[in-house]
Design goal:
The protein is an alpha/beta fold. It has a single domain, classed as Rossmann fold (3-Layer(aba) Sandwich), CATH 3.40.50. 34% of the residues lie in helices and 27% in strands. The chain is built from 7 helices and 10 strands. The strands form 2 sheets. It has a 6-stranded mixed β-sheet. The chain has a 4-stranded antiparallel β-sheet with strand order 2-1-4-5, with helices on one face. Strand 7, helix 6 and strand 8 form a beta-alpha-beta unit. Helix 3 packs across helix 4, helix 3 packs parallel to helix 5 and helix 5 packs parallel to helix 6. The longest helix has 18 residues.
């Protein structure tokens, strides 16, 4: 169980480099940050600054070259691939710019799948998916496949899927980047409401400064450095 006084996510002195022949390319270095319980933090900065790389790092999809990552009180940056997968499955939800829903499955099935992978029974997964999609205003679209949903509806299903296994951390990479301004704001408001009601922490990369200003605080990634706005 989480210690409510401790940050859900801590990154200390992270560095990420790539080697191309004799050349070392530094994506970022000495990056440190934290994310508290119930806190929503905006991650902003120009394209190519390293925002997505940082999200992949703290989301355990990639390993840092150096530094430390602590999730829910546990040091996780250098665990085995299997252990990292287990932590992602239990602790972290992801929302991307593109929804990445499975096209052959309905909305409710897309939200059931991660639960069933985690060992939840089909009936329990269906009940949970039904409840989440109802909360997202999609109770009338449960059996629709992604191709029959609007862009905003697709992203709401993706948010429900990210929350299906009750993560302690939500990581979102331009979650409204493919939507028109009105739909973007509506989807973002739903995302924020669901995150706050679940009491989890969220780190959200965005180019939309209007949305960034709605969050609890803002961090800027630029030229391989991360700072508070």
């Amino acid at each position: 169980m989480s210690n409510t006084n401790a940050p859900l996510l801590v990154a200390r002195h992270l560095e990420k480099t790539h080697h191309q022949g004799d050349v070392t390319l530094t994506i970022f270095k000495d990056v440190s940050m934290f994310l508290g319980q119930g806190e929503i933090v905006a991650l902003v900065g120009p394209s190519g600054a390293g925002k997505s790389t940082l999200l992949q790092m703290v989301g355990l999809l990639d390993k840092p070259t150096a530094g430390q990552i602590i999730i829910d009180g546990r040091e996780v940056s250098h665990l085995s691939d299997h252990d990292r997968t287990m932590i992602r499955r239990k602790k972290i939800g992801f929302v991307y710019q593109f929804h990445f829903l499975q096209p052959e499955f309905s909305a409710i099935e897309n939200v059931m799948i991660p639960q069933m992978i985690a060992g939840v029974s089909e009936s329990e997964a269906r009940d949970k998916a039904d409840d989440l999609l109802e909360q997202m205003g999609l109770g009338h679209r449960l059996d629709h496949r992604p191709a029959r949903l609007s862009g905003g509806e697709q992203q709401r299903v993706a948010i429900a899927r990210a929350l299906a296994n009750d993560p302690v951390i939500l990581l979102a990479d331009e979650p409204t980047g493919n939507l028109d301004p009105k739909t973007s704001e509506a989807v973002f408001d739903i995302l924020i409401e669901r995150v706050r009601s679940a009491g989890i922490g969220a780190l959200i990369a965005t180019h939309n400064m209007d949305l960034a200003r709605k969050m609890d605080r803002m961090m800027i990634m630029d030229q391989g450095q991360l700072r508070e706005a």
